[in-house]
Amino acid sequence: MVISNGQPASVIWDYDRVELIADGVVHAIGVSLGVVGAIVIVVVAANSAHAANMPSIVIYTVGLLSMLGFSAAYNTWPISQAKWVLRRFDHSAIYVMIAGTYTAFIGSMKGDFVSIGLLIGVWLTAVVGATLKLLLPGRFDRLAVFLYLILGWSGVVVYEPVAAALPNLSIWLLVAGGALYSAGIVFHGWQSLRFQNAIWHGFVVVARMLSLFGHSLLCGLRASLIPCGQNIGLRLLSLRSRI
Question: What is the model's pLDDT at position 223?
Fold first, then answer.
């Protein structure tokens, strides 16, 4: 159900000027860090042993920037019919971002049944969720939050193959990001709290930056450490042979 200007009846938008400015600053920081981070991760991946995974990295960065960009546009746009259209894309982009995150990590795993099955399941859920948000705005909002959480934590069911394929630090950064995002949902629903929207989006930005750093490590650090470790090992063996 919507009201005259297209605003979903379930949506309450009652923030004062200071709250809006604070939320705008959070979004400006998030978008800036996202753009810089996306450029860095693409450049690092292109110049590392993970260049073959570039398509999955691009999907991830597109999902990340879409989420940050649509969120900034929706939350800073003046109240009008266009704002509520942006809200649809904002909420839909969250599904794309989560699915893109898994796409990048799964791209570094072996193409076995488990990883392919997880990737298909994640994207099917994301498509269903995004479609509901685009076509039925303001409805199933609680279901959408539930799907966000289920989708975000779906990797737990295949922890062993994921842990075997990814660096420990990347995994922990991804988990930390998911934990922050999940904790931030408390503020998302705390409508009576002043600066609630800015606090919630602060959690989201930090969570996404942790995930981005985890992807950067996956693409660059491991690629640089392995050759480095091999060279050190060869030098030690050479030294021992001389002794």
Answer: 44
Q: What is the pLDDT of residue 46?
A: 79
Task: Give the whole-angstrom CA distance, residue 84 versus residue 6.
Answer: 6
- The mean pLDDT values, 10 residues at a time, for the chain of 243 residues are 61 85 95 92 75 79 93 92 91 91 75 78 90 82 80 77 75 87 88 91 92 75 40 36 46
Q: By the 8 A CB rule, do 71 and 34 touch? A: no
Instruction: Go through 20-32 and write b for each residue having 16 or more CB atoms within 10 A of its CB, e for each that does not.
Output: bebbeebbeebbe
Written as one letter, the residue type at 158 is: V
DSSP 3-state of 8: strand
DSSP of 184-234 = HHHHHT-TTSTTHHHHHHHHHHHHHHHHHHHHHIIIIIHHHHHHHHHHHHH
89: tokens are 């894309």
The whole-angstrom distance between residue 137's C-alpha and the CA centroid of its chain comes to 22
Calpha distance 230→34 (Å, rounded): 33
Residue 2, helix vs strand vs coil: strand
CA distances from residue 81 to 7, 24, 39, 109, 178 in whole angstroms, order as listed? 7, 20, 33, 44, 32
Amino acid residing at 212: L
Triad 167, 170, 175: Cα angle to 5°: 125
Report pLDDT for 243: 45
CATH class, domain 17-242, is mainly alpha
Cα–Cα distances (Å) from 13 to 16, 71, 76, 83, in that order, read 10, 15, 12, 11
Q: What is the pLDDT of residue 224?
A: 43
